[in-house]
């Protein structure tokens, strides 16, 4: 019998300070029955891709509040691809202006969650869109 | 014939290693074949268990130990096991937070694993994941488990060298006594030695090791002389003659004391080899593993044949006291296992 669990890497790329939001999301995902690998602050794109690969996650969830999303996210998406991890769902939460969403999706980001998005919405999005391998 | 998945693991392809560990965790049918193909290539790694109460600094210490091995150009895999929430079935696996520095080093592979409920299941998944990492050629495998649940302690116990990590300030008593993990220590580490009370914690452990020297003692109980097993570990490990269990103080955050700890791990390994205990432990572990596999498979074969209604009828009779558990067992075995 196959016993699958959704595995999610939660990381905070870039240099901005706190990870309260990321922790709230991590707990919500755990409470929804997912296994959350929490890597904490100041993760480089290389670290995120390498951790995602070693942990063989189905989802990579990032929190970016610094405004550096346009520089960080395309690089992260590229590194995930190089690591053969582009089948994983890439979702991001943070303060991201509407006009940036389309180019980010173009670059490989599957969903952008604005501040104030309910954790329930994040959970449902993941459950609906994840492709379990 | 070696399948491409196992071949990739022998070539240390990281994606394949990660993949097979997922198959192992999910009980995927592909796991058994790959594991059988890889089995002849296992048995090379030195397995170091790191266990202790929550928050004592196990992950920080694992990070330092791994760094020290890397300075000697020894490759290291880390299996970090955390409990699954009994309420949701989910888990937060946070050990990687302390291992930032190791990410990106091709000589290191870190995998987090959730305990996922059932006792035997965790042990099987952990041992199989260890085999994957072993076959991939990692020379040392560090296994971090919280020394709380029985199965976590069991996993640490099956390592070649077991570190039990304590920290001062967790209360007056040595935290681990209740969980029964003191008995499995090959090396004690008192981490957070920068905190007040570290010397006292180390001294307490040393005293306990001294007291534990006589394994059994006789006491008067209600006027009768009784022999009880001493619950404390012996300072001289009977299973590994000549090994004195050391108590080592460390400050994981600064790397202090790690050199001494590395020497102790290496001495312990040498001692295991010299005394022949290493092969004895390996043999015992494999025997346990076979027994567990047989048990699980026999149970599975039996229970697939017993219809749920039949079982629930029988249990109703047990509740009504019209059938005893022994008779119920005999009925089930006669009807479904002959
Ligand atoms: N003062 C001090 N703090 C330390 C030391 N080692 C670890 N810590 C801190 O102790 C806390 C727990 O450290 P971890 O390494 O996560 O401990 P752990 O035993 O792996 O924790 P769990 O996996 O949650 O059981 C962290 O805040 C560390 O920074 C040390 O030597 N001295
Ligand atoms: Mg830890």
Description of the structure:
The complex is a heterodimer of chains A (133) and B (338). Chain A has 133 residues and is of the alpha/beta class. Chain A has one domain: Rossmann fold (3-Layer(aba) Sandwich), CATH 3.40.50. Helix content of chain A is 44%, strand content 23%. In chain A, strands 2-1-3-4-5 form a five-stranded parallel beta sheet, sandwiched between helices. In chain A, helix 1 packs across helix 5 and helix 2 crosses helix 3. The longest helix of chain A is centred in the middle third of the chain and has 14 residues, at 69-82. Chain A is globular and about 40 Å long. The two termini of chain A are 15 Å apart. Chain B is of the alpha/beta class and 338 residues long. Chain B is built from eleven helices and ten strands. Chain B has helices at 4-10, 14-25, 29-38, 58-71, 119-135, 150-157, 198-211, 258-275, 277-305, 308-319, 325-336, and strands spanning 46-52, 76-82, 91-93, 108-114, 140-146, 161-166, 187-190, 216-221, 224-229, 247-249. Chain B has a seven-stranded parallel beta sheet, sandwiched between helices. In chain B, strands 8-9 form a two-stranded antiparallel ribbon. In chain B, a hairpin with a 2-residue loop joins strand 8 (216-221) and strand 9 (224-229). In chain B, helix 1 packs across helix 2 and helix 1 (4-10) packs across helix 3. Chain B is globular and about 65 Å long. Residues 214-220 and 226-234 of chain B have low confidence and may be disordered. The A-B interface holds A 1-5, 7, 26-27, 29-40, 42-43, 46-47, 50-51, 53-56, 83-85, 133 and B 14-15, 17-19, 21-22, 25-29, 84-85, 87-94, 96-97, 100, 103-104, 109-112, 114, 116. Strand 2 of chain A pairs parallel with strand 3 of chain B, so a sheet runs across the interface. Bound molecules: guanosine-5'-triphosphate (GTP) and magnesium ion.
């Amino acid at each position: 019998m196959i016993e699958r669990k959704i595995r999610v890497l939660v990381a905070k790329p870039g240099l901005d300070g706190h990870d309260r939001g990321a922790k709230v999301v991590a707990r919500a995902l755990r409470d929804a029955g997912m296994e959350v690998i929490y890597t904490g602050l100041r993760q480089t794109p290389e670290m995120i891709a390498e951790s995602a690969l070693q942990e063989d996650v189905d989802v990579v969830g990032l929190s970016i509040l610094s405004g550096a999303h346009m520089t960080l996210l395309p690089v992260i998406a590229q590194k995930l691809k190089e690591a053969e991890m582009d089948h994983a769902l890439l979702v991001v939460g943070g303060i991201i202006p509407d006009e940036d969403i389309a180019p980010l999706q173009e670059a490989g980001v599957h969903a952008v969650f604005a501040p104030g998005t309910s954790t329930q919405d994040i959970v449902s999005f993941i459950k609906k869109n994840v492709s379990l391998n | 014939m070696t399948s491409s998945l196992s071949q990739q693991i022998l070539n240390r392809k990281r994606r394949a290693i990660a993949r097979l560990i997922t198959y192992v965790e999910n009980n995927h049918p592909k796991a058994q074949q790959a594991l059988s193909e890889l089995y002849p290539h296992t048995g090379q790694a030195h397995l170091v268990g790191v266990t202790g109460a929550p928050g004592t600094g196990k992950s920080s210490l694992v990070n330092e130990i791994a760094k020290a091995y890397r300075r000697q150009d020894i490759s290291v895999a880390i299996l970090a096991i955390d409990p699954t929430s009994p309420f949701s079935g989910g888990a937060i696996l946070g050990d990687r937070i302390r291992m930032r520095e190791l990410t990106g080093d091709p000589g290191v592979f870190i995998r987090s694993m959730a305990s996922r409920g059932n006792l035997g299941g965790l042990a099987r998944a952990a041992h199989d994941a260890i085999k994957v990492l072993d076959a991939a050629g990692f020379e040392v495998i560090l296994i971090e488990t919280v020394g709380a649940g029985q199965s976590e302690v069991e996993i640490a116990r099956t390592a070649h060298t077991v570190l039990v990590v304590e920290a001062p300030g967790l209360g007056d008593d040595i935290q681990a006594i209740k969980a029964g993990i003191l008995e499995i220590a090959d090396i004690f580490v008192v981490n957070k030695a920068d905190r007040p009370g570290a010397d006292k914690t180390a001294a307490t452990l040393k005293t306990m090791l001294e007291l534990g020297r006589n394994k059994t003692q006789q006491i008067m109980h209600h006027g009768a002389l009784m022999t009880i097993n001493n619950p404390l570990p012996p300072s001289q490990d009977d299973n590994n003659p000549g090994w004195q269990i050391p108590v080592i103080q460390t400050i994981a955050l600064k790397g202090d004391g790690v050199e001494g700890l590395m020497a102790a791990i290496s001495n312990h390994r040498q001692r295991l080899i010299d005394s022949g205990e290493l092969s004895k432990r390996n043999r015992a572990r494999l025997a346990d593993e076979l027994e567990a596999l047989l048990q699980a498979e026999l149970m599975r074969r039996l229970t697939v044949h017993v219809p749920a209604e039949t079982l629930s009828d029988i249990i109703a009779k047990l509740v009504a006291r019209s059938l005893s558990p022994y008779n119920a067992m005999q009925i089930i075995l006669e009807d479904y296992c002959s």
